[in-house]
Amino acid sequence: MAPRLSVNVDHVATLRQARRAPYPDIVEAARIAEDAGASGITAHLRGDRRHVQDADLVALRQSVRGKLNLEMAASDEMLRIALEVRPQQVSLVPERPDEVTTEGGLDLLAHGERLREAALRLRDAGIAVSLFLDPHPEQLEQLAEIGAGAVEGFEINTDAYTRSSGLDSELHVAGMRAAAEQGHAAGFLVYAGHGLTTTNVGPVAALPNMEELNIGHWLVSRAVFVGLGEAVREMLAAMGAR
Predict the structure, then answer these.
(1) Which residues share a beta bridge with 190?
(2) Which of 44, 51, 172, 184 is flagged as catalytic?
(3) What is the mean pLDDT of residues 233-237?
(4) CA 87, CA 61: separation in Å to the nearest integer?
(5) CA atoms of 47 and 191, how far apart (whole Å)
(6) Which among 11, 51, 71, 152 is annotated as catalytic?
(7) CB atoms within 10 A of CB 163
(8) Residue 211 near residue 189 (C-beta atoms within 8 A)
(9) Cα–Cα distance between 186 and 170 in angstroms, integer?
(10) Is the peptide bond before 208 cis (omega within 30 degrees of 0)?
(11) Which of 155, 181, 215, 227 is 20 to 30 Å from the Cα of 12, by its Cα?
(12) Average pLDDT of the segment spanning 170-174
């Protein structure tokens, strides 16, 4: 069975914030995406508020029919917001103020205890927790240690794969497959995302035990030409939709 699709609406907000206009409406984008077959919506509230705003989370929580997945850093500020808004899922990600987009996965060897503490606070509030990880064996080993009883799943960072080609691409797919199998064997749900398009999504969607893909930039970019609903349908077709 193909994985589900969670549509990241960050860059709908990016377009809106470019002019500080009331449009395009992020809630309308979420509705269109779900109507077209998305199982849920992802939004990243960054510390610098470069796209999604606090009020967007409240509006999305009230309107999204499927799962609302909040991407955020494990900062005190973001934990407070998450505990107030209570999305169904929080995906903890690394964040640097000067990065263009998320540059890599969390380092569980360096920050595992802090991330476990954050995950436990969220879990105790009834919020499922996922960690954004590079598909490296040592990170998956650490996930099994710090994630037990606190973390529900992990998201494979597909960035390196999406920037590769040929034999290098095949090696990245093999590494992601091994990570998916290792994480699933340890009891965690498997997600993936970052830089995925209809051209490169197939091998990721076909990874063993893949539950859900989080995709945004390509969908919003494609929507400029065909509309968001059609972009979502194209992606679902490329994923081999359920």
Answers:
(1) 154, 210
(2) 44
(3) 98
(4) 6
(5) 24
(6) 71
(7) 13
(8) yes
(9) 24
(10) no
(11) 155
(12) 97
Q: Is the pLDDT of residue 23 over 70?
A: yes
HSE, CB side, 13 Å, CA atoms: give it for residue 223: 22
Q: How far apart are CA 196 and CA 215, in angstroms?
A: 6
| pTM more than 0.85 | yes
44 is catalytic: yes
H or E element in which residue 90 lies? strand 89-92
Residue type, 206: A
Place of tokens 């964040």: 95
pLDDT of 241 strictly over 70: no
Domain ranges of the chain: 4-224
CA–CA dist 207, 224 (Å, integer): 30
- Establish whether 211 is a catalytic residue: no
- Which neighbouring-strand residues pair with 8? 42
Residue 185 structure tokens = 């064997």
User: 4-224: CATH homologous superfamily?
Assistant: Aldolase class I (3.20.20.70)
Three-state SS at 40: strand
Q: Report CA-CA distances (Å) from 94 to 73, 78, 217, 230.
A: 6, 12, 18, 31
Query: What distance in Å separates the CA atoms of residue 239 and residue 242, rounded to the nearest whole number?
Result: 9
Angstrom distance (rounded) from CA 36 to CA 29: 11
Place of tokens 């035990």: 209
217 is catalytic: no
Q: Which of 11, 172, 184, 194 is catalytic?
A: 194
Which segment of 65-79, 96-110, 147-161, 214-228 scores lowest on mean pLDDT?
96-110
